[in-house]
Amino acid sequence: MKVLEASKVGLIKAGKTIWKLIKIVVPVYFFVKVLEYVQILPYNSNLFSPLMKYFGLPGEAAIVIITGNLLNLYGGIAAIQAFSFTARQITIIAVMLLLSHSLPVETTIIKNLKVPRILQICIRVVTMIIFALILNLVWK
After folding, report:
1. 22-27, long-range: CB within 8 Å, 24+ apart, which pairs?
2. More confident residue, 61 or 27
3. Which domain holds residue 42?
4. In whole angstroms, what is the distance from residue 37 CA to residue 21 CA?
5. pTM for the full predicted model
6. Is residue 21 a contact partner of residue 81, using CB atoms and an 8 Å limit?
């Protein structure tokens, strides 16, 4: 009987988690596809291409990184799905988002520890940039 109760509780929690993810992933994916459809995405890609080439990434990767930094990792994952990146590019983006994601939420939480928000953002973004540059140089 305990197995049935545990299964029921587990399924309910899994359903709630899936619903939370769907509420993030679907709108972000939809938004990126709309940007692509109305030809805003190519403009943004061209704008960020010079910067992204240092990381070995196309300009479209900037949308993924910005989304992951402003929303959360799941938003970044949803944005990745809208593009055709190579395994190398996805790995570099994943490392970047691992080091710097959900900046508004996480900096607000850590601010309670009396660490200035700008210092937190600078450390995380600079670390992200350094690791992405190194990974791009190492993985050719």
Report:
1. 24/71, 24/72, 24/74, 24/75, 24/78, 25/74, 25/75, 25/77, 25/78, 25/81, 26/78
2. 61
3. 2-138
4. 24
5. 0.80
6. no
